[in-house]
Amino acid sequence: MSRYAVSDIHGCQKTFRYLVEKELQLKTTDTLYLLGDYIDRGPDSKGVLDYIVELQKEGHRVEALRGNHEEMLMQSRTDSTYLTTWLLNGGAEAMESFEVATPQQIPELYFQQLENLKLYIKLDDYLLVHAGFNFSAPDPFADTEAMLWTRKFEVDKTILGNRKIIHGHTPISLDQMATTVTTPDIDVINIDAGCVYAGRFGHLAALDLDTVELIVVPNKE
C-alpha cells in the first residue's frame, strides 16, 4: 500500500500514463494524490482528465486537487477576463484537445469533474495542496486564492504540527527538488518538475509519501 503525489501534468497524457503504469506500476491498494494543473499548455488536456477518470473506474484510489489552471477554465465560461488570461496560459491548447472553439463547448461532464476537485487534503503526516497556504489568514484552509495561486508563503508550525506540505504550481529543477527532499526537517516540498517545459525542466515527478523518494520520468509527448 504505497502513497504517491504528482503535480502539474499540464496536458502531458503520455508522460503521465507512463509514470503511473510503467514506473509506479500503480496498484488498486495504492493511493495516488494529484495536486492540480492537469490541463493547458501540453497536447492532450482532455486525455489527462479522461485518464484520471479511467483510473478511478478501474478501482484505483485517486484523489485529485484543483489547480489554478482548472480554476481559470471554470471561471472562463462566464468571465471574459479569466478567459483572456486562460487563453494566454495554455487554454488554446486545451481547447484544441477538446476540438472546440470556446470553453462553453467543452462537455458539461468535464466541468462536473473539475467542480468536484478538492482544494487541499489533510493527512496525518502531510498537507497536500496545489500552490500553498496563507498562514496569516484567520483560516488558512478557507483562503482559496492562496491554495490555487500563491508562490511564496511562511509556515506556521502551530498549525502545521508534524506534517509536511507537498505542493506544485512553481516549476523547479530536479536538483532543487532532490535537495529539498533529502534535507532533514524541511517543512515544504515542491514536486513541480515542469513537465511541459523544455530546458532544465521537462520532467514529471512522483513523490513516494512513505519513503520520501522521487520517481521521475522525462517528458514523453
From TrEMBL:
SUPFAM superfamilies linked to this entry: Metallo-dependent phosphatases (SSF56300)
Record-linked PANTHER family: METALLOPHOSPHOESTERASE (PTHR42850), ZINC-DEPENDENT ENDOPOLYPHOSPHATASE (PTHR42850:SF4)
GO biological process annotation, one example: RNA decapping
Residues in Calcineurin-like phosphoesterase domain copies: 4-187
InterPro entries on file: Ap4A_hydrolase, Calcineurin-like_PHP, Metallo-depent_PP-like
A GO cellular-component term linked to this record: cytoplasm
Protein name: Calcineurin-like phosphoesterase domain-containing protein
Record lineage: Bacteria, Pseudomonadati, Bacteroidota, Cytophagia, Cytophagales
GO molecular function: bis(5'-nucleosyl)-tetraphosphatase (symmetrical) activity; phosphatase activity
UniProt xrefs under Pfam families: Metallophos (PF00149)
Source organism: Rufibacter radiotolerans
Coiled coil residues, start to end: none
